[in-house]
Amino acid sequence: MPRGVDVARLAGVSQKTVSRVLNNEPYVSTEVRQRVLAAAEQLGYRLNNAARALASGRSRSIGVVTLGTALYGPASLLMGIERAVRATGYALRVVSTVEGDPTGIAGAVESLLEQGVDGIVISEPIDEGAELVRADVPVLVFGTPLPFSAPRVVTAGVGSGELAHAATEHLLDLGHATVRHVAGPQRWYAARERLAAWRAALAARGLGEPPVVEGDWSAASGYAAGRRLAEDGDLTAVFAANDDMAIGVIRALLEAGRRVPDDVSVVGYDDVPVAAYVTPPLTTVRQPFDAVATAGLQLLVHAIEQPHEDLPQAPDHPVELVVRASTAPPPRKTPGRGRATSG
Amino acid sequence: MPRGVDVARLAGVSQKTVSRVLNNEPYVSTEVRQRVLAAAEQLGYRLNNAARALASGRSRSIGVVTLGTALYGPASLLMGIERAVRATGYALRVVSTVEGDPTGIAGAVESLLEQGVDGIVISEPIDEGAELVRADVPVLVFGTPLPFSAPRVVTAGVGSGELAHAATEHLLDLGHATVRHVAGPQRWYAARERLAAWRAALAARGLGEPPVVEGDWSAASGYAAGRRLAEDGDLTAVFAANDDMAIGVIRALLEAGRRVPDDVSVVGYDDVPVAAYVTPPLTTVRQPFDAVATAGLQLLVHAIEQPHEDLPQAPDHPVELVVRASTAPPPRKTPGRGRATSG
DNA sequence: TTGAAAGCGCTAACAC
DNA sequence: GTGTTAGCGCTTTCAA
User: If contacts are CB pairs under 8 Å, which of residues 165-224 in chain A contact chain B?
Assistant: First the structure.
């Protein structure tokens, strides 16, 4: 492997000048720059990142902690983060925490720190008990402040705006007396956020809160939840915390003889690519993963590169309600049918 | 940040001994080991990976080139790779190539090489023209040999076994006269592989090859394909190259007045988590992403750490056909209905 | 605008 | 078992 001095020798300059050229530093004559570039090309020279990191104390890389699942939401956010990181010129290091891993997020952060990342992203915060995580680099958390001890902790979020409870409101606007919720696993911040949005929407209309059914994001758990919901003869509207569970709910309702949306309306969350093509096409809530990831990473890079400036505020990226055919006004009360399955 | 010498001083040993302890090298007395560990703990010491990589010439990290999509297949494979890499003790660096990126896979590989990875994984090979990629570390490609120039190129694959054309055979076994194929984008190796499997299954029965409709993996493209297929009055069986497209096909057929599976059977590929809960539940092909990733990474690590030994053969991980309700025997010929939509 | 010298914090090779 | 001595290939600082 050729080194910087080899390039320098070939170009007839000092090694420092090679370094200057390759780092786009000023104060190099165009002529020298050309010569160095040509020499580097000719030798097939590549900068050695380890040496660079050791000498400079910075690795130009950002570490991300993921949850190791291929679920649409987390996967989409991760892809958004990848794109956004690339755009900033940093490299990406990934550590996934498996559910049930005893070291959890703290262990993942520790291993990223050991790798010498300049900043850390927690892509999908889950609650691991109140273990404090110490980091000596800035940390970006999507959605919620976590118990972190770091020079700067920045939070970027989705749907903190008015549209956060769009799903529930949509159903209430259609005339449903109340809305049942199939929640995600409550260790996940995203699940708690959606539950809270549902609560808030009901409360805003002065409605009481029917019991919540909790799933695990999977269609199978949605199906199980749907079977329980089908026992409720008054059921006319369901808000599921993601599309997969919504699809499971719909299937269970269908099997219980409830038509969707004629008897029961169902709303999902995520707008997975198939949502428009299942039967019935799913009304759902779309999240702007890319925009959120981009904005969050800009903040993080700012925190890394301007440690003393104030952090700008993260812009709000409202979610978007996509209305399709799985929601409709409630059926007119038909005594006898109302409690058909429960009696 | 404390350094190795600081720990050494505190423990009353040499810096090299600290290094030995932290690298689990032999020839350190248990007593000294304890003292060093205690000192490191007390100072909050962390090994500096950049220095380690510079001195040793190895970064203990593996780079993976992904395609930057949240599609179920690629995302699942990426998660499998993450898990597998973690199990090997290596760190993970990720670079995503965006479709249409001029530098493509070659550029991604180049940037990983600059980061000093010890090995490279191409998770989702796509055809980028015959640009030769030079790497000076071992490379693992899932599915197909790529034009690589590297010390070792290892390939790990899925379904090279007999079950590869299970989907098409299943439909033929049910009595369908032929099977139409909705292919994935042919730049993708995975799409070409499935197309080839479909071809082989037809050829094995001496059947001719009906025209292929190509999609882009999305449900929307499956829907478009389904509309075209619906013009074929003799259509009774479709094999889509992934589940999303299959779901789109089903919706288009439904809208064209074809019942699934009564009039037309549809098989997908991937077994996405909702496949069992859509209407009708989808017959599909499941891939063992985790097993494939694990096996592939073992090979790669072997190639990294035993550069001179022969590579063991990658085991075959057959795909699994999951039969659900979207497939059935073809309808009995009903003249008049057969060409209903095309005439 | 360019160059020389001095490390960055570790591992490798060898002595003891 | 343990310590000593050299670097690894850059960036930083300072001088020219």
Answer: 218-220, 222-223
Q: How far is B56 from B46, CA to CA, in rounded Å?
A: 17
Strands B180-183 and B237-240: parallel
Cα–Cα distance, A104 to A97 (Å, whole number): 6
pLDDT in tens, B110-128: 889 989 999 999 998 887 7
Phi/psi at B184 (nearest 5 deg)? -85, 175
Fold of B160-283+323-341: Rossmann fold (3.40.50)
Closest Cβ opposite residue A50 in set B59, B273, B279: B59
State which CATH number among 3.40.120.10, 3.40.30.10, 3.20.20.100, 3.40.50.2300 fits the domain covering B57-156+289-318: 3.40.50.2300
The DSSP bridge pattern shows strands B320-322 and B284-286 to be: antiparallel
What pLDDT sits at residue A340?
A: 42
Any idea which fold A4-47 has?
434 Repressor (Amino-terminal Domain) (1.10.260)
* Chain A hits for B273, Cβ within 8 Å: 218-220, 244
| Subunit contact A94:B93, Cβ cutoff 8 A | yes
Nucleotides on strand C lying under 7 Å from protein C-beta: 1-5, 7-13
Integer angstrom CA distances of residue B184 from A277, A312, B241:
18, 43, 6
For position A337, what pLDDT does the model report?
46
Residues of B in contact with A219 (CB under 8 A): 273-274, 276-277
pLDDT at position B144: 77
Restricting to B residues 48-87, those with a Cβ less than 8 Å away from any Cβ of A are 48-51, 53-54, 59, 61, 66, 68-70, 72, 75-76, 78-79, 82-83, 86
For the cut 60, the answer to whether the pLDDT of residue B339 exceeds it is no
Domain regions of chain B by residue span: 4-47, 57-156+289-318, 160-283+323-341
